[in-house]
Amino acid sequence: MFNATVQSIRISTPKITQTCKSKDCLNALNINAHGYRCLSTSSCLHGKVVPRKKPRVVHEIAGLEPITYADRIHYVPGLAKPTFPEWDRGWKEPRYYKSPKLEDMPLHKDKPCYIFNQRTNVLEGVRQALWLSKSVLIKGLPAQILNLAQDPVNQIENQDDRVQNAIKNSRLWDTTEHRPPRERFCPSLVHSLLHLCDSLQGTHPKLAKRILADKYSLAATWRRGEDMFQVRGQNGLLLNSMTPVPVVAGDELIQSTADQALETFYPISPTIDLQCTHVYQEKDDTGFRADYPFPHAHTLFLMEMGNTPKLYPEQLRAKMLMFAFGNALARAQALYGKDPGILEKPIVVQSVATNGRLFQFVVFQLNTTDLQSDSGVKNLAWVDEDQPLYEFAKVRPLIKKKVVQVPAGLSGYEPNTFKKFLAFYLHGAA
């Protein structure tokens, strides 16, 4: 039995040496005829972590000059290591670039700035976004959009069948895998739904005056209390229009926001989870040139894909609200200047987010750019959350205890969710 054990270990030794090709691993196992095991392994095999060498501390004594081996041009034991002045090449070498200290950078400022970007995951979710944008929340969607969704004139021919085919194409027909990755089927589904919505150009000619923009960079700066905030960075797929989105709330509703108090979440700071930096530029930019023929942001589409940070639905809705607010604020400052005040004509920006199954809808109306204080007229935000487009889309059926729990194919289709998606797209063109 012992000989059989030795023989099995000898057989497994070449497998170890094949998987580990380093110089130390070639002598991983050496078994002699007496059965003694001689393990000669490196730290990568037995899990030892080589301790990091401590840097040598060179003590400088005032009045004494160390004796170095600089004149001999080679290392001499017992003599100090020489130090030479930094060599100036006369041109910039990116491999040897050394960043200056933060205090020495041209954009350094004493007052910090709190930045909301596409990777921000705020703790308080929508409540924190409402405080940052000085907004009042209204549950559900505006009546104008709901009327568009229910109007049979705005429906596509064979709408439900075509939407279900778009879902099947992105989830079932476009892959040979058991479960397609989210970064593949989520953009495919959104672009297929947008293509369906764009097929109504024959009955709605204003749809031809729109364009989709991807990978544009946004920058919007404002002051809230004593702090400075920014929304900046790339943030999804933006549908731009030649004409602005119609105003959703009337003057009575806008003026009534002055009496409403903003919800706070004390003792948590409103700046929690925001990027704090002292090196920044006070910039306001829509991401497009001044002569761009489609200057008005219509709808922002956000997709929760696998290569982006995973956000819970509450944090995803906060991200939608903040970037819709950032697009509206940048456009307002381009139209009316940077002086804070109530806008003559409010600016409306819509936002739609999805993970491939659940859809989130946000409508934001910017009424004022006076965001420093909590008093006065406030902005408005409508949120419709967690609207499923379907329940399951399985390549193979889900079977438990020989019982089919979920059949293969598409099941649980919700037509009302696409009606809202279509109403968002038709808003301002119908």
List the helices and strands and how they pair.
Elements: H1 2-19, E1 29-31, E2 37-39, H2 43-46, E3 108-116, H3 126-133, E4 135-139, H4 143-150, H5 159-173, H6 182-198, E5 210-214, E6 217-224, E7 227-234, E8 237-241, H7 251-256, E9 275-279, E10 296-303, H8 313-336, E11 342-354, E12 358-368, E13 379-388, E14 392-394, E15 398-400, E16 403-406, E17 409-411, H9 415-426
Note the main attributes of this structure.
430 residues; seven-stranded mixed β-sheet; alpha+beta; 17 strands
Structural commentary:
There is one protein chain. The chain is of the alpha+beta class and 430 residues long. The protein folds into 2 domains: 2-46, no CATH class; 110-426, no CATH class. 26% of the residues lie in helices and 25% in strands. It contains 9 helices and 17 strands. α8 links the parallel β10 (296-303) and β11. 29% of the residues are buried. This is Large ribosomal subunit protein mL37.
Summary?
With 430 residues, the chain is α+β, with helices and mostly antiparallel strands. It contains nine helices and 17 strands. The strands form five sheets. The protein has a seven-stranded mixed β-sheet, with helices on both faces. Strands 6-7-3-9 form a four-stranded mixed β-sheet, with helices on one face. Strands 1-2 form a two-stranded antiparallel ribbon.
